[in-house]
Each structure stands twice: as structure tokens, then as C-alpha cells.
Amino acid sequence: MAAHKHDHDAASGHGAGHSHAHTAQHGTLIVALLLTLSFAGVEAVAGWWSGSLALLADAAHMVTDSSALGLAAAAAWLARRPPSMRHSYGLVRAEVMAALFNSLLMLVLIGFIVREALERVGAPREIAGGTVIGVAVIGLAINLVVAWVLSRGEHTLNSRAALLHVLGDALGSVAAITAGIVIVTTGWTPIDPLLSLLVAALILVSALRLLREVVHVLMEGVPLSIQLDAVGRDLAKLDGVLRVHDLHVWTLSSGTIALSAHLEIRDLADWPGILAAARQTVDTQHGIRHVTLQPEVLTAQPLLRAPYPPPSPLA
Questions:
Q1: Is there a contact between 54 and 291 (Cβ–Cβ < 8 Å)?
Q2: Residue 59 clears pLDDT 80, i.e. is over it
Q3: Which of 141, 92, 145 is nearest to 255 (CA)?
Q4: Percent of residues, the chain, with pLDDT higher than 90
Q5: Each residue's pLDDT tens digit, 82-91
Q6: CB 263 within 8 Å of CB 246
Q7: Domains and CATH numbers, the chain
Q8: Which whole-number Å values give the CA distances from 15 to 39, 74, 78, 91, in the listed order?
Q9: What is the average pLDDT across 14-27?
Q10: Do 172 and 57 touch, CB atoms closer than 8 A?
Q11: 220: alpha, beta or left, given left = phi > 0 and alpha = psi -120 to 50?
């Protein structure tokens, strides 16, 4: 005979908190989208007229920012949808998928900037440095405002991906300002593509780090903040638990961690107390509230009683 308990987030008001957080995040993303899109066209025209690759790259980056922010806002809206017969967890993974797309979009943009920069290093072009400085200063101000708006919202993979685009834009604006100053004072135009390469390299590091985290979530990896063996040992140390196996911990979406495990016990009559203790342990010790535990009654004494499931929590 076996039974299981599924500790839903909504039971403790956790789901309602996430709903409010997703609503606030959706609003901040919309504001960021409007601010970014309002300036992207102006910067693109100025970059084309001045001949600055740094400014054009920054304008292209702002255009991709707009699409990235739009996608992030749509994903935040989808994540608020309740569970259904087709999607029992709801659509919370929409934010993770948006973060994946935005990370890949960032890599494509970096490739475009690098290609254009390498071409211009060998064939420098005339650049209107004064125009570059003026437009880039306005662009930097807008990027900093957008970054401030996003930083005040919930920090999910989705919002971090959008923020990465905006911070990359800010770096691009700084590079364009620097290039404009050098060109105005010295006339040395190769500084423009060289600084574009530097910005591309800086953005690449952050983009790859975010992409690795997104892929880890999609592969159902154990969250980086969780030690799986520690979770297994804590469950195995509970009174009445003989062994733990089939232990799995994964991320449903940013801020929502799920756990499932089989607990071997001696008497099913002890299960309500064991279940309550297990739920409290994984919540207080590891911050996991979405829990599914399956009891299995043993009729014989186990050969070994270890402080955690032998030989590992995954046995």
C-alpha cells in the first residue's frame, strides 16, 4: 500500500505571491520596451548618417532589445496563466524559453558586430564624431533608465536575459561615446570598430553564462543553489525513514523548485508525521516547497542504516 502528498505552492499562498510578481514584472517589461523602441529608430538613422559602426551596432542592439523585451513581456504574461488539462504546471516555462531565445539572439547579434568590425578595421570609413557623441549620450541615458526599471522587478531568467540586452546596449553607448571623442580629437577612425569588438567580447561572456543556466534548467538539472546529497541526507535522518531513493530536484521556473522522492518506512501509520517533518525540512533547510513524496513500506530490517541513502540519494 502506498500514498503520496503533493505540496502545491497555492496551499501556502505561494502561488498568489508569484502571480503578483509576474504581474509586476510584465508591467516593468512593457515600460522598458516602450523606452527602448522609442529611441532605436533615432539611433539607427543617426548611425547611418554619421557612418559610425559603433552607433549602428548600438542601434541594432536596441532593435533586438525591443524584440527581446517584447518577447520577455509576452512570456511573463503567459507564465501567469493557470494550470490546465494540457499543461498541469501552467505555462511557467515560457519565461525560460524566452530567456533561451534571447540568449541565442544575443549571440547572433555579437556575430554580426564582429564581422562588420573586422571588415572596417581593414577599411576605415569617415565618421561624424560629433553626431556619434550626441546620440550615444542620449542612448546611454535611456539604457540606464531601462536597466533601472528592470532591476527593480523580479529577478527571473527571463528578466535577466532582457536586462543583459539592455546592459549590452549601455556598453555599446559608452563605446560609441569613447569612439566619438577619439575621432573628434585625433581623427583616428579605427577606434570605432575596435571598441565594437571589445563590447562584443564583454557581452559574449555574460550571454554564454546565461545560456548555460537556461540550458541547465531545460535539462531538468539540479538547481545550482541545491546540494542533492544534502537533501537526501536530511530526508534520511528523519525519524521513521529507513532509506531514500529516486530523489529528484529540478527547476520549474525561476524561483520555483520542485522535488520528488520515495521514502522507505516501516509502518504506514507513521506516514502523516513523517510527511509533515519532511515537508518542513526541505522547506526550511533548502527552500523547496513544491514537494511530492511517495512512502514505501518495508517488511524486513534493512542491512545498513546510514545517515543518508546508501550509496547515494539517487540509488
A1: no
A2: no
A3: 92
A4: 19
A5: 888 888 888 8
A6: no
A7: 5-218 (1.20.1510.10), 228-297 (3.30.70.1350)
A8: 37, 19, 15, 13
A9: 49
A10: yes
A11: left
Q: What one-character DSSP code corresponds to residue 222?
A: P
**Considering the chain, what is the average pLDDT of its residues?**
77
Of the ranges 50-54, 131-135, 262-266, which one carries the lowest mean pLDDT score?
A: 50-54
SS3 at position 27:
helix
> Number of H helices and number of E strands within the chain?
8, 4
pTM comes to 0.70
Report how far apart the first and last C-alpha atoms of the chain are (Å, whole number). Answer: 22
pLDDT tens digits along 246-263 = 899 998 876 789 999 999
pLDDT at res. 303: 45
Taking Cα atoms as reference points, which of 219, 216, 102, 108 lies closest to residue 160?
Answer: 102
Cα 176 from Cα 179, distance rounded (Å): 5
Residue 5 is predicted with a pLDDT of 42
Position 118, amino acid: L
CA–CA separation, 232 and 311 (whole Å):
11
Q: Is 113 exposed, middle or buried (0-12, 13-18, 19+ CB in 10 A)?
A: buried
Instruction: Supply the DSSP symbol for 290.
Output: E
Residue 126: DSSP 8-state: -
Residue 60 cell numbers, joined: 541594432
Report the 10 Å Cβ neighbour count for 311. 9
Q: Which residue's entry shows cell 553564462?
A: 209
pLDDT digits (tens, 9 = 90+) for 160-188: 777 877 787 788 788 888 888 998 898 88
Task: Find out whether 313 and 232 touch, Cβ atoms under 8 Å.
Answer: yes
